[in-house]
């Protein structure tokens, strides 16, 4: 369930929770909201990793 999810600090966790609550307030199910936010976090982490890798080359 938590495959490829980077570790988040407290501030990042709070932002993710707020985003999930925002989706749910607009009528989205909790599962779908969590999935969307988790995917956004994964994509941001992958982009950051790619940028770091390209800087090292």
Q: Which percent band covers the strand fraction? A: under 5%
Mean pLDDT: 90
> Uncertain segments of ≥5 residues (pLDDT<50)?
none
What is the helix content? over 70%
N to C succession of SSEs: HH
Shape: elongated
Number of strands: 0
Count of helical regions: 2
> Which radius of gyration do the C-alpha atoms yield?
13 Å
Tell me the span between the first and last alpha carbons: 33 Å
The largest β sheet comes out as: none
Give a structural overview:
It is built from two helices and no strands. The model has no long low-confidence stretch (mean pLDDT 90). By secondary structure, it is mainly alpha-helical. The protein has one domain. Helix content is 75%, strand content 0%. Helix 1 packs across helix 2.
Structural features:
57 residues; mainly alpha; 2 helices
What's the helix and strand layout?
Layout: H1 10-25, H2 30-56
Helix pairs in contact: 1-2
Short description:
This protein is an all-alpha fold.
């Amino acid at each position: 369930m938590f495959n490829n999810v980077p570790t988040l600090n407290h501030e990042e966790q709070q932002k993710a929770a707020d985003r999930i609550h925002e989706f749910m307030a607009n009528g989205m199910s909790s599962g779908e909201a969590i999935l969307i936010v988790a995917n956004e976090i994964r994509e941001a982490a992958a982009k950051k990793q790619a940028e770091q890798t390209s800087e090292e080359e």
